[in-house]
Amino acid sequence: MKPLLSKITKPFLIYVLCVLVISIPVYYLVVDTIWKAELDEHNKIIAEKTAYELNRLKLTDQKLAESIKLWNSIQPGTDIQNIKKEDLLKDSIYTFEKQKSYTKEPNIDRFRTLSTVIYVNNKPFRFTVETNIEESQETIVVIAITTVFFFIMIVLGLLFINRKLSDSVWKPFRDTLEKLKKFNLNSQTKIEFNPSDTTEFEELNQSLSKLIEHTISAYKTQKEFTENASHELQTPLAILKNKLDILLQSEDLTEKQYRIAEEMNKALTRSSRINKNLLLLAKIENNQFDNSEKIRFDAILDQSMEAVQEHFEQKNISVEEDNSSQVQVNGNSSLIEILINNLLLNAIRHTPVHGSISVKLTSSVFEVANSGTEPLNADLLFKRFSKLSSESGGSGLGLAIIKEISTFHGWKVSYRFENGHHVFSVKF
């Protein structure tokens, strides 16, 4: 991620750089065009002045011819010629390049040329004058260097000013952000934001204060509901289950009544388990658990493996363990124990008799794999009340709880099917 200042400055710099790149050829075209127009005007004045001076001398035809010959020999930039029959008496202006005649070194110059008709002693002559325009390129170079210099000065100045201003202008925003980072919903303490003289930041603080106040109120309501539901629902369910247990022990029940009572007992047991799991999910989502403990993950895993050892023996499941020692994580011990137990019981429940289960623990991942025949639907796997099979007697919340516990701790849980085994991984 990039800071806001760099996201604003970078497009601006790119835009200014593009304008600079475009401006250099534009400068060249504009200056070159102006320069040529001035030279054309200059050449036209020379032609008019030359005609005027020759006419003012009132030379004879012979003297005029001698003067023109002398002119052409000593004035390399101009040329006066008699009009030929095929001459259309039209003016022409053009640019060409040539080697300087008075130097041996290779030196190509550009020239702007005017070819026009002048009248001397009422006779037409073709007057050609050429003027060097090489200086325009040097002017463009100077303009380009000057523009680049000022561009660099502007960019450096803007970067310096932006960096200085950001420290003061964005200070209220950073203070607000820092307080939001430290805010803990469990403490239910409102944030007191520092007042700001910037309208946008003051409106942001007011909106955040209202949002936090509403969030705390909603959190309190949900927490009270969770606690009330935990107490009010579990008590009648426990009483009903106790009454059913007494009824099942009665010798006066017929076989049919016994079956009905047994089905009711199973449904009640499942309802009680679902209620506990839903309450657990609600508490996790409401951040009602502390996750700042330093916990030995391997120690909890060893205890859970001993607790389910009887289940392994009942289904004659072979177990392979590859567990590292001294694996320490930050989290909540109760939730981690539930996560481990749910993964192990899920694997046992869906492993056929004489199947196999492997458990792997490293400093970065915890994996439980059990033998199977075909892959599961990964899209529905961690959704609530999504059972892995129709024969499962679970509540459909085990994997959803695993997902929520992993998210609560900042871990990532995933599923894959490889080598005939369902593999559930929790990456720390």
From TrEMBL:
Which keywords annotate this record? Kinase, Membrane, Phosphoprotein, Transferase, Transmembrane, Transmembrane helix
- Note the InterPro entries from the entry: HATPase_C_sf, HATPase_dom, His_kinase_dom, HisK_dim/P_dom, HisK_dim/P_sf, TCS_sensor_his_kinase
Q: CDD domains, per this entry? A: HisKA (cd00082)
Molecular-function GO term, any one: kinase activity
Q: Which domain of life is it from?
A: Bacteria
Q: Which Pfam families does this UniProt record tie to the protein? A: HATPase_c, HisKA
Catalysed conversion reaction: ATP + protein L-histidine = ADP + protein N-phospho-L-histidine
Supply the EC number(s): 2.7.13.3
- Cite the Gene3D superfamilies for this sequence: 1.10.287.130, Histidine kinase-like ATPase, C-terminal domain (3.30.565.10)
Task: Outline the extent of the Histidine kinase domain.
Answer: 228-428
Q: What class of enzyme is it?
A: transferase
Membrane-traversing stretches: 12-30, 140-161
Q: What is this protein called?
A: histidine kinase
Q: What is the lineage of its organism?
A: Bacteria, Pseudomonadati, Bacteroidota, Flavobacteriia, Flavobacteriales
